[in-house]
Amino acid sequence: MADTREILKKVRRLELRTRRSVETAFGGQYHSVFKGRGMNFEEVRQYADGDEVRFLDRNVTARTGELHVKRFVEERELTVMVMVDVSASGRYGSGETTKRELAAEVAAVLAFSAVRNNDKVGLILFSDRVELYVPPRKGRPHALRILREVLYHDAAGRGTDLAGALDYLNHIVRRRAVVFLVSDFQAADFSKPLGVTARRHDLIALPVRDPAEETLPMIGRAVFEDAETGEEIEIDTSAPAARKAYETAVRQRRERLEAALQKAQVDRIPLATGEDYLPALADFFRRREKRIAAH
Question: Between the chain's N and C termini, which has fewer beta carbons within 10 Å?
Answer without folding.
Answer: C
